[in-house]
Write a structure and sequence with these properties.
Helix content: 40-55%
Strand content: 15-25%
Largest sheet: 8 strands, parallel, barrel
Order of helices and strands: EHHEHEHEHHEHEHEHEHHH
């Protein structure tokens, strides 16, 4: 069995860090992740610099990305202007996103939920015409910082709409409230009923992410999004803490006999390098403990 890992550290990880890294350092981080064997790296987001200063200079990052065989770089876009910038940058993979609740969609993207879905549909149509790959992330799929519990039926309906224009639909636990049974149930329903490749994007805010990753894979998830060192969060989601650490996911999956194609030692070295650049210890457990055996 092979699972595709997407490291979102250079984007979702760094966007919530108090320290802002220069574009050249962020590009180097992407390259180190590629050398470690990550098949997909979310390198940048094309958003307004004043709203997310840590993502400033996306074009500089994109132009400095080292090309490593077997690795594709992706960029997140929230609107047509962002897509125009991504297209001009030369990146070949587009990540789209909208919230599962109206409140989060308004805080995160400044639009109504229906408008967010319509916008993602339009951008996906352009991306496919341009020959780019498209993945859609549904934020707050398991819980919202503003509205609390989220009806799985609502998420399923949104996933069905995203499946019409996306190659992959990713269910995101943006604030880290999901437990394995919830993840297993929703991934099973989406992947088996909609027949769309399904992924998860999990935050380890309450310590349930690794167990939920394993439950997602048992339910048929084909893609796992994680962040090197366990860095991250969301500036528009109060209480959102770090993503599940990529090295922790790799360790758990490989020990379970699931091939990731990632060099764990190289990944741990990258997390330690990043820790030095950020000037603080990172929450990833395997980086602190070391790989084993």
């Amino acid at each position: 069995m092979r699972v595709t890992l997407c490291d979102v550290g250079p984007r979702d990880g760094l966007q919530n860090e108090p320290s802002t890294l220069l574009p050249a350092i962020r590009a180097e981080l992407c390259g180190r992740l590629a050398v470690a064997g990550l098949p997909l790296v979310e390198a940048v987001s094309f958003v307004r610099d004043d709203l997310v200063p840590a993502m400033a200079g996306a074009e500089e990052v994109a132009s400095a990305l080292p090309q490593v065989e077997g690795t594709q770089y992706a960029g997140l876009v929230l609107n047509e202007r962002g897509y125009d910038r991504l297209r001009a940058s030369g990146l070949k993979a587009v990540h789209l996103s909208f919230g599962a609740t109206a409140s989060f969609q308004d805080r995160n993207a400044g639009s109504a939920l229906e408008e967010g879905v319509a916008r993602a549909t339009r951008i996906a149509e352009r991306a496919r015409a341009d020959g780019l790959s498209v993945a859609t992330i549904i934020s707050c799929a398991f819980g919202c910082p503003y509205e609390g519990r989220v009806d799985p039926g609502v998420v399923y309906d949104l996933a069905g709409r995203a499946a019409t224009f996306s190659e992959v639909v990713v269910l995101a636990d943006t604030i880290g409230v999901a437990v394995p049974s919830e993840v297993r149930a929703l991934v099973t329903r989406v992947s088996q009923t909609l027949r769309v490749p399904t992924g998860v994007h999990l935050h380890d805010t309450r310590g349930t992410a690794i167990a939920s990753v394993l439950a997602a894979i048992e339910a048929g998830a084909m893609r796992i999004e994680a962040s090197v060192g366990g860095i991250g969060g969301c500036p528009f989601a109060p209480g959102a803490q770090g993503n599940v650490a990529t090295e922790d996911v790799v360790y758990a999956l490989e020990r379970e006999g699931i091939d990731t194609g990632v060099d764990l030692d190289e990944l741990v070295a990258t997390a330690r390098w990043l820790s030095e650049r950020l000037g603080r210890s990172l929450p990833g457990r395997v980086t602190r403990a070391g790989s084993w055996p």
